[in-house]
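User: Last request for today: this protein with 4-nitrophenyl phosphate, please.
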Amino acid sequence: MNISLNETLKTSVLFVCLGNICRSPLAEGIFRYLVEEEGLGDHFSIDSAGTGAWHVGERPDGRASLVAQQHGINLDSRARQVQKEDFGRFDYMIAMDRENLRALEELRSETNSDTQITLLCSHDPNGDNGDEIPDPYYGGASGFENVYQLVHQSCKGLLQQLRCRLITLSRLRPQS
Ligand code: 4NP
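Assistant: Here's the final one, the structure of the complex with 4-nitrophenyl phosphate:
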């Protein structure tokens, strides 16, 4: 789809889970892939982080990297913990489960940020898969394939919504 967007319009999205080695790196990689596929790379800034600090500096869990690779996606993130400063940098924070959502809301309350915090599953257009991406860390490989499918479906819905927002903003703002 060829849409003419204001060149300066950019939406920043941070995907957040607990450890930043399984679910949110997958969400970051899948969302980036979908954005590139739509030719919208210049209009998005995409990152991921964890509410916990146990895995800071680590590459994604091998099982997450493998399932992504099986679907043609490379994961190249390094784990980091969410910082208060992120609330000044991101328009959206997308949480994998309610515990992540609560932790983000608590951190946001210490700032004057209006960053929107949502659950990834709330963007699933079918909405029949529950409202959380289950934590696959202590399970087997099939849990990672399930997480991949849930994240992929929700990321497609999220991109559709954010693309509509970009088009609306583009119509409201003159080209620079
Ligand atoms: P994630 O998965 O939040 O999807 O990255 C986890 C990774 C590590 C741990 C828990 C969940 N952990 O307990 O170390």
